[in-house]
Specification:
The protein is α+β, with helices and mostly antiparallel strands. The chain has 4 helices and 10 strands; from the N terminus they run H-E-E-E-E-E-H-E-E-E-E-H-E-H.
Length: 159
């Protein structure tokens, strides 16, 4: 259990500061580590006592939609789905934000926990891509989610 907070450092030492997902290169924040599964990528930030006293300090999920997100067509459905997911988990709507990266825009919805003001839930869809980002964890790590989104690069533009 003492090793848990150092998993991010070990991951970065072995793999570097970026992960490739589909056609995208995504920066992994210091102290976060990556797990891949059939659904996509998960970027984890853990602390001492993980799994004994509480869950992850922060978890960023990265998934791909079946088709690129188009604001005019998809935003109402995205908003409804995020609202339902947040409500089912005990969160209330706080704000909507646009996060810009390169020439793109990500539309993010932020929710706060009803019983613990330090916990947040955020859903983001990246316009004109099939990428979605979800966040659950301490409010102090929300800027890490936004900087992760701002770091994404299409692999072709990296070369």
């Amino acid at each position: 259990m003492l090793f848990v907070p150092f998993m991010g450092s070990c991951w970065h030492w072995r793999y570097g500061d970026f992960v490739y997902y589909g056609q995208w290169k995504i920066r992994v924040a210091p102290s976060f580590y990556v797990r891949k599964d059939a659904a996509g990528l998960s970027l984890w930030k853990l602390s001492f006592g993980y799994s004994v006293w509480h869950g992850a300090d922060a978890l960023i999920g990265i998934r791909e939609l079946r088709r690129p997100f188009q604001y005019e067509d998809d935003y109402p459905r995205f908003l409804k789905g995020a609202d339902m997911a947040a409500e089912n988990q005990g969160y209330k709507f706080l704000s909507a934000k646009e996060i810009r990266f390169g020439t793109g825009t990500s539309h993010c919805l932020e929710y706060g926990a009803l019983k613990d003001v330090t916990k947040s839930f955020v859903q983001c869809a990246v316009e004109d891509t099939s990428l979605t980002f979800s966040y659950g964890g301490h409010t102090k790590y929300i800027p890490v989610l936004f900087s992760t989104i701002q770091s994404i690069q299409h692999i072709d533009s990296d070369r």
